[in-house]
């Protein structure tokens, strides 16, 4: 399968320091967009500190970062909505078992991709821009710009939805390119050729291959 959403750029490294690495706030009865913005700022500061101090001391960087993905990142992502958007119109025709498999494998792919990209961190900085509420009370866009040490600035916007008392990320847009839209093109091609089961198999094979690379097997 064509590599989906290449994640070796330094800009991606810094975008992970924001909403993606946030510890969920206490459940709230009503959505407050300011909480989403504050969450990004707080966790960005903390995760920058982790990367600067802890990563170099880890015995196994891949294992260390993956553990952080599972512990900190996974609870902040709306994997069901992300998968539904990436699969597009084919989602409604998938069986419940296929939907569960798609979410499981897409989750694995995203977390492994993000963990790998964090290794590329090179002192980039994230600057938040004024809050931009969504069209609905339960939607908000947290905008930022990534300041690279040796490259152009990047625009990184996080789309969040308020669900079950928490803000969670369902899309990321880097310099105008949506993550879920990028995946949707690749996923659609795979489904048209081999069906939903074919996409599940392809994602599973990609994840197993990445696992073998990490473990050296």
Descriptive report:
The protein is α+β, with helices and mostly antiparallel strands and 217 residues long. The chain is 50% helix and 17% strand. Helix 4 crosses helix 6. 35% of the residues are buried. Residues 1-15 and 17-27 have low confidence and may be disordered.
Give the distance, in angstroms, between the N- and C-terminal Cα atoms.
21 Å
Estimate the strand proportion. Answer: 15-25%
Largest sheet: 6 strands, antiparallel
Secondary-structure element string: HHHHHEEEEEEH
Structural class: alpha+beta
With helices defined by DSSP (H or I, 4 residues minimum), what is the helix count? 6
Broad shape: globular
Mean pLDDT: 80
Low-confidence stretches: 1-15, 17-27
Question: For the CA atoms, what is the radius of gyration?
Answer: 17 Å
Number of strands: 6
Residue share in helices?
A: 40-55%
Key words describing this protein structure:
217 residues; disordered N terminus; alpha+beta; single chain; 17% strand
């Amino acid at each position: 399968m064509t590599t989906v959403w290449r994640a070796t750029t330094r800009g991606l490294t810094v975008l992970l320091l924001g909403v993606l690495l946030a510890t969920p706030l206490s459940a709230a009865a009503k959505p407050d967009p300011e909480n989403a913005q504050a969450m990004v700022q707080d966790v960005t500061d903390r995760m920058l500190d982790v990367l600067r101090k802890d990563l170099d001391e880890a015995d196994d960087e891949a294992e260390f970062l993956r553990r952080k993905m599972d512990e900190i990142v996974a609870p902040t992502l709306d994997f069901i909505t992300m998968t539904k958007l990436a699969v597009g119109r084919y989602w409604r025709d998938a069986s419940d078992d296929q939907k569960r498999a798609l979410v499981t494998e897409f989750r694995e792919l995203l977390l492994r991709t993000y963990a790998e990209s964090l290794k590329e961190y090179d002192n980039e900085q994230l600057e938040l821009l004024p809050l931009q509420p969504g069209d609905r009370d339960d939607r908000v866009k947290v905008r930022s710009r990534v300041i690279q040490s040796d490259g152009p600035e990047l625009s990184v916007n996080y789309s969040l939805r308020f669900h079950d008392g928490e803000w969670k990320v369902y899309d990321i847009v880097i310099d105008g390119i949506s993550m879920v839209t990028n995946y949707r093109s690749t996923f659609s091609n795979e489904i048209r050729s081999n069906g939903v089961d074919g996409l599940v198999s392809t994602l599973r094979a990609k994840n197993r291959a990445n696992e073998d690379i990490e473990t050296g097997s």
